[in-house]
Amino acid sequence: MGKKIVIVGAGYSGILTAKKLAKNFKNDDDVSVTIIDKNPFHTMLTELHEVAANRVDEESIKISLKRVFAGRKVDVKLDTVTTVDFQQKMVKGTAGNYAYDYLVLCAGSKPTFFGTPGAEEYTYKLWSYNDAVLLKDHIHNMFRKAAIETNLEERRKLLTFFVVGAGFTGVEMAGELAEYAPILCKNFEIDRSEVTICNVDVLSRSIPNMPEKLSAKVEKRMEKMGVRIMMNTSVVRVGEDFVETKHNDHITSEGTYTVVWAAGIESADVTAEAAKSLQSGGRGRIALDAHLRSLDNEEVYVVGDNMLYTPEGEEKPVPQIVENCEHSAATAAHNITCAITGKGEMKAYKPSFHGFMVCIGGRYGVARVGMPNKMFNLPSWLAMFSKHFINIIYFIQVLGWNKVFSYMKHEFFTIRNCRSFVGGHFSNRTPSFLLVPLRVWLGAVWFYEGVMKVIEGWMTSPKLTGFFGGAQTWYNTIIDANATGTAAKAATAAADAVSAATGTGAAEGAAQTGNAATAAGTVIFNLDFLGLFSTIFVSGKELAHSTLQDLAFKVDVPLINWMIKELIIPNAGLQIGMQAFIVIAEILIGLALIGGLFSSPAAGFSLILQFMFVTTTGLYLGTFWMIFAGIAVLIGAGRTFGLDYYAMPALKSGWNGVSVVKKSYLYHD
Question: Number of C-alpha atoms within 13 angstroms, CB side, residue 287?
């Protein structure tokens, strides 16, 4: 009889567990994997503050579950799970019931309010996609209303914002809001001094997971951005238009319409309900053995935030962080596979966490990373780079290239108001129609080069001996002459070498070139890199009298030189074949760029040909513009006044529908 694995929750740990199990049992039809979530999408919880403060589009934090599991044996159920009957091995939801043989609980968390009066009713949360969108709209409306409000007390309430909690979520939300406030002030013509942003916590310092030095840096940065830091302060009551705080037994009430609650989390309702039947700890976390199974039920696994497990040798339970979700998912999937197949040994969960990082807005961050026995602090720029790099590593696991491209687009290429640690350098846009003349001209030059080679007989007789050999001799002649000062001897040697390969006529031309080079040629630099390759930059004349047409650059690679000398030059048939490839490529690249059809591949092949030339014959600086032109028209240049405008949407639709493409995520929106 088949085995049924049911996973409750499609958060970080749920998705990774399901994907790993689907991979392990992809050839076993007797094992089914079902994942249940109340939403048809996965939410990037660590990026909610970016949406709430309007740094990125709200759609950027959603990942379609249908796309994640495309082509995989995972049955996605849209349902809200209410209870689990452990006796009957049944997960019960509002839309149906789901029998299981093995259950993975990873329903995530929800905010906890510690019994604070009014907190649940009157605060804005930041723990779901809807929370982030609602808060974003609310913040915008507060500024919009304040812009036309004449009552000073009411205006002050509208422009006062409290963020409760100085952990990761609270600090990132406060920092993001402080970065967003000047933009809103400018849009609504409000003085920044009228805006009050407070970060409140009962703790003595921000981000207690980090060393005091980094906590101090976080607080200093937030204060510089205009955030009032209120540590050792508790929130005792929240109302519709006020918040009461307590510091040193003194209670203060301040008027505000915005209190963001980020003061702590507890297990989601379904896990909290399950915890009543299983051994558990505070806030609904379920006690586990070393294999991540419930202490009461070996067929129930728990991963992610809902775990209560202290690894051997550690003093505290594993933290509720994304890295724990990733590691626990892998261990649980492995152990379930062992339990079902009876093969292999179960693994004890021994996580190795690599640090913490927090961003204060899009431009500044702090991080403490490394290995458990060796941690170090990163400067701001590297901290932000690490944050994005780690996010990309995670997205590769979830949705491959599709999500990586989407993430980079939202974080760098379309970022608003330069709110990135690299500023707005990657988001400044040039109207694509301005590239049309460059695209057409580049295509025309390639087409001309190809046609001229046909006229010169490249399709019928070997030409590469002079093409490659003559160029190599020219460079060597200049280098040797500059090294030894024996110009006449170098020129004669060059003439003899080319004469032996190509005949008297070609030898005379090469000798003339060699004589000119050795008489007045100049080596600007010739740098060797460990014998692997060298970069050569020369002029055929004295440097003072040189033009761009006299200056040439080459990347000299011994391996390529050997291939040309030993494999290509001695074989006339191979020469003609390679010549035909070059000619056809140049003509096709030219036509594609002129017509704007498949312009991105054409520009890519243009760059490949240029690279081939720079490593074989070298390039005069007068033709270097073709390299930069190829880069400029590489992305989407054919969609304006080109056939790509019509062809690409149709091809994209067909490509995105291929099952292998969907399964490997090799597409973008």
Answer: 9
pLDDT category at 15 given cuts 50, 70, 90 is very high
Are the C-beta atoms of residues 175 and 360 closer than 8 Å to each other?
yes
Identify whether the C-beta of residue 304 lies closer than 8 Å to the C-beta of residue 14.
yes
Residue 247 belongs to a domain with what CATH number?
Answer: 3.50.50.60
User: Residue 519 contacts by C-beta under 8 Å, 6 or more apart in sequence?
Assistant: 487
Sign (positive/negative) of CA torsion 387, 67, 416, 147?
negative
As a dihedral over the C-alpha atoms of residue 352, residue 275, residue 394, residue 77, rounded to 10 degrees, the angle is 150
Tell me the pairing of strands 374-378 and 258-261. unpaired
Q: Which amino acid is at 514?
A: G
pLDDT band at 365 (very low <50, low <70, confident <90, very high): very high
Residue in the structure block whose two tokens are 């350098």:
425
Q: Following DSSP, what letter does each residue of 614-665 receive, concatenated?
A: HTTT-EEGGGTHHHHHHHHTTTTGGGSSSTHHHHHHHHHHHHHT-HHHHHHT
For 324: left if phi > 0, alpha if psi spans -120 to 50, otherwise beta; the answer is alpha
Considering the domain boundaries, does residue 173 fall inside one? yes
pLDDT of residue 520: 52
- 435-452: b (≥16 Cβ within 10 Å) or e: bbebbbebbebbbebbee
Cβ atoms 108, 98 nearer than 8 A: no
% of the chain surpassing 90 pLDDT: 80
Domain containing residue 484: 437-503+519-644
For the cut 80, the answer to whether the pLDDT of residue 487 exceeds it is: no
| pLDDT bucket at 392, cuts 50 / 70 / 90 | very high
Residues 171 and 258 in one domain: yes
Residue at a domain's end among 225, 244, 263: 263
To the nearest whole number, what is the mean pLDDT of the chain? 91
Q: How many CB atoms lie within 10 A of CB 501?
A: 17
First-last CA distance in the chain: 41
